[in-house]
Backbone:
């Protein structure tokens, strides 16, 4: 036998090259599947997706497969739009906010991200195709977030949005010992002053736009009282906000009544108190749009699905939970016209699950970004749990 | 809520309390009956009863006809008073880790300093960023939160240095206490259990001119609790702004920071107060403020409202020369003010009368509780000061400040009675007078018809050592009911 065959390293490298070539090449014209995520969040049977130039061209009911086309058949599988993590720090190193200014709307998270970081590939394997990366919550106004895909596809722009939403933060992480504010009252007073100035057209352009309702904001809250403070401070006027509240939960329904900003919850794990998770379910029942945060890479890449599964376990409607992984986060990031649903005109970012992703035993079979297959489950992965890396 | 139940069975309390009847869910009216009813305006009705409707007092009297379908609360040997009002409550800013965690302080600190929790490492055991974190770690006494010598639930919970006060300036009247108040904090439950239904949440004394306080209810639906989002601005004369405002003195062998500033003495405190007021006035006249310790524009804007009398001013002063300084400053800027703490007020009766100053006195103590124990301003405390103030005809409210439960406002009232004040006068000092000082006298403070139905039903005579609140209603809604537990 030739000696190079006995070199496992070489064999693996050759195999990787072949796999890599296949990744770059395979992009089907059609996809015929048994179940898919409908716009209302339910799972519907039998659908044919027609893809063209990285977009979903049309969505046809039933299984149609004309001859002469590259078609993917998946029996029993569930097709989802790619999952979206709005609380990711993928591709960042070290501190992700400046500590010089508490009000720093000029910062942009796009400057933080190393798009070639290998952790992006791990996210792809969990079915996450889009992430929003924001500066850390150490400033009252910490700059704008960036939303990008987890894989670069030739000929398609990887960055969906680089200029928003504008990130705000309340809570103890904002208080610094050596610059104002140093306390909760100080932070709220500063925030109010900055917003009043912006309302009058003074201050940074982004804050002025935010107050005019032309740039949406996301407020990172630490405690329920920060949520109350956010509603008091930002409420009224034309400013649009979403609230991230991962901390302890109380019954905020009374305060949220009639205001209904999107609330980002989680990530939940199996140690999260049931009351906290049940609260998320209660919000969804109150018709408050809920989004599950993933927190990659600090949290497991499957966090979004684990959070959703637990929320359903504690009373959330499965349809709401599915939308909270796809459509709602896309809307929060302001990229709902590009990703987050199986709709004609949107990017063909698709995840093929072996079952409903709310079931934790459902596997990711394939992932497509802009119509190109970027992940395919291998036998080795299934049998040994090994990485394809 | 009891009203929300179709039926309540077996609601019995000991021998004293007899529940006459509870009627179905659609009862809109509530009837409260007890052996004696204190209306709060000096009127006393034996075997009195109250009829509450739509969250207000509808009728007060003796053997009134009970409306059909009304919910009846009767405590035969008990008494009824208006809900107590604490006009200067130091409310725990939020449930700090120390108090809400079942772990010991040392375990909590381990969490802070172990590598897994490093992100939180800048936090001190007071639940916020603490510049003395290393002291916490080594178990050395921390001058900020008192760890590990702090008295749990008191010094730690009520030490607001790092939470209620903004350290970036000595003049922060534009900040609002309500921003740091967690309405869900357990402290409000503790106040409620002591019969207190409304509090003025006091700003902290760490800054010379501190924040605007807030008036909040201690129970009921969260979205209806805030009565007034912003109220009086608090100033402090004495040593507290210099020793509590952390790091005003330059840290030994450390760099000068933005906290390295005046005041470091009593004179400095007065100077910062004066300069802030003159700067605000001058700024409005087009004279730009200059020099060290210049207040921010937002602060000066608020101070001008204080100078115009749009926002009331409170001054905390304990010793007699501090009280005199407060009176002098108020005269200089012709601002009326309310005096807080007033430990040595019995020496200043004439001065206070002359200035027409209302006083929120308390707590009554021999051994000073809380952080004031370290203030060197408490040696002159006397037990009869409350009587001296009331006898002189000075408008005086009583406060328990940070004390709760068995040391709370009801107990402070008991001490006042023990040291010479008439019971009816004491009742006024914890209900009608604070309501008037807070400017909510037409809504709260007595049980006259038309006022908000804040009612405390006591198991015996109010303020007796053996009495406790059995039922508390806020806006006609039962928020505490001890009858069920027996």
Residues:
């Amino acid at each position: 036998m030739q000696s190079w065959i006995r070199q496992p390293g070489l064999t693996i490298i050759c195999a990787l090259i072949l796999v890599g070539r296949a990744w770059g090449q395979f992009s089907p014209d059609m996809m015929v599947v048994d179940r898919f995520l409908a716009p209302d969040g339910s799972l519907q049977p039998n659908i044919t997706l027609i893809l063209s130039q990285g977009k979903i061209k049309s969505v046809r009911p039933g299984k149609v497969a004309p001859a002469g086309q590259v078609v993917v058949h998946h029996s029993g599988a569930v097709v989802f739009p790619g999952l979206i993590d709005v609380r990711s720090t993928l591709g960042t190193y070290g501190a992700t906010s400046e500590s010089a200014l508490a009000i720093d709307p000029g910062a942009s998270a796009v400057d933080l991200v190393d798009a070639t970081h290998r952790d992006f590939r791990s996210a792809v394997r969990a079915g996450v195709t889009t992430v929003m990366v924001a500066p850390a919550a150490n400033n009252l106004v910490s700059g704008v977030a960036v939303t990008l895909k987890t894989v670069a596809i030739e000929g398609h722009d990887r960055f969906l949005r680089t200029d928003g939403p504008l990130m705000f933060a309340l809570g103890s992480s904002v208080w610094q010992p050596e610059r104002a504010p140093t306390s909760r009252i100080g932070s709220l007073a500063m925030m109010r002053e900055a917003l009043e100035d912006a309302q009058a057209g003074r201050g940074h352009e982004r804050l002025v736009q935010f107050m005019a309702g032309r740039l949406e904001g996301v407020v990172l809250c630490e405690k329920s009282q920060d949520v109350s403070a956010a509603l008091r401070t930002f409420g009224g006027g034309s400013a649009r906000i979403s609230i991230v509240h991962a901390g302890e939960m109380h019954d905020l329904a009374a305060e949220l009544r009639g205001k209904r900003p999107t609330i980002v919850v989680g990530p939940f794990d199996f140690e999260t108190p049931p009351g906290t998770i049940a609260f998320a379910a209660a919000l969804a029942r109150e018709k408050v749009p809920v989004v599950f945060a993933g927190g990659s890479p600090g949290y497991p890449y499957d966090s979004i699905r684990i959070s959703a599964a637990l929320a359903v376990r504690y009373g959330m409607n499965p349809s709401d939970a599915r939308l909270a992984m796809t459509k709602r986060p896309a809307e929060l990031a302001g990229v709902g016209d590009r990703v987050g649903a199986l709709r004609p005109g949107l990017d063909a970012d698709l995840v093929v699950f072996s079952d409903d992703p709310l079931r934790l035993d459902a596997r990711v079979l394939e992932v497509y970004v802009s119509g190109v297959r970027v992940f395919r489950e291998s036998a080795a992965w299934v049998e040994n749990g090994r990485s394809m890396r | 809520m009891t009203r929300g139940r179709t039926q309540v069975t077996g609601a019995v309390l000991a021998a004293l309390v007899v529940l006459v009847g509870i009627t179905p869910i659609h009862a809109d009216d509530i009837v409260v009956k007890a052996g004696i009813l204190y209306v709060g305006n000096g009127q006393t009705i034996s075997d009195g009863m109250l009829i509450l409707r739509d969250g207000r007092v509808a009728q007060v009297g003796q053997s009134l006809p009970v409306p059909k379908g009304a919910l009846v609360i009767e405590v035969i040997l008990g008494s009824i008073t208006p809900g107590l009002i604490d006009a200067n409550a130091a409310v725990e800013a939020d449930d700090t880790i120390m108090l809400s965690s079942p772990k010991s302080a040392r375990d909590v600190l381990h969490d802070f300093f172990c590598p897994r929790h490093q992100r939180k490492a800048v936090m001190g055991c007071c639940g916020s960023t603490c510049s003395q974190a290393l002291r916490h770690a080594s178990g050395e006494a921390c001058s900020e939160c008192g760890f590990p010598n702090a008295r749990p639930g008191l010094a730690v919970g009520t030490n607001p240095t790092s939470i209620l006060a903004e350290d970036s300036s000595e003049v922060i009247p534009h900040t609002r206490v309500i921003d740091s108040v967690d309405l869900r904090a357990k402290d409000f439950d503790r106040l409620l259990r002591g019969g207190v239904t409304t509090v003025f949440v006091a700003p902290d004394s760490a800054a010379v001119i501190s924040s605007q306080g807030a008036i909040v209810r201690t129970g009921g639906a969260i979205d209806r609790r805030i009565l007034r989002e912003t109220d009086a601005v608090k100033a402090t004369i004495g040593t507290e702004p210099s020793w509590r405002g952390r790091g005003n003195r330059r840290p030994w062998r450390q760099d000068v920071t933005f906290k390295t500033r005046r005041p470091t003495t009593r004179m400095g405190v007065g100077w910062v107060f004066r300069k802030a007021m003159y700067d605000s006035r001058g700024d409005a006249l087009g004279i730009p403020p200059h020099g060290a310790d210049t207040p921010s524009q937002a602060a000066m804007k608020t101070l001008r409202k204080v100078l115009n009398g749009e926002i009331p001013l409170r001054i905390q002063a304990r010793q007699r020369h501090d009280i005199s300084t407060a009176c002098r400053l108020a005269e200089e800027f012709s601002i009326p003010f309310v005096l807080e703490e007033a430990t040595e007020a019995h020496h200043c009766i004439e001065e206070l009368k002359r200035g027409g100053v209302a006083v929120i006195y308390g707590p009554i103590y021999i051994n000073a509780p809380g952080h004031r124990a370290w203030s060197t301003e408490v040696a002159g405390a006397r037990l009869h000061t409350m009587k001296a103030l009331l006898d002189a005809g000075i408008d005086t409210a009583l406060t328990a400040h940070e004390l709760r439960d068995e040391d709370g406002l009801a107990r402070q009232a008991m001490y006042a009675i023990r040291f010479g004040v008439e019971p009816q006068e004491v009742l006024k000092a914890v209900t009608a007078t604070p309501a008037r000082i807070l400017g909510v006298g037409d809504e709260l403070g007595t049980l006259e018809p038309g006022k908000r139905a804040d009612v405390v039903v006591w198991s015996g005579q109010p303020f007796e050592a053996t009495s406790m609140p059995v039922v508390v209603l806020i806006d006609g809604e039962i928020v505490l009911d001890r009858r069920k537990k027996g």
Summary: Chain B has three domains: 2-82+470-481, 95-159, 226-444. Chain B touches chain A at residues 93-94, 122-123, 127-129, 131, 162-169, 172, 174-177, 179-184, 211, 221-223, 229, 257-258, 298 (CB under 8 Å).
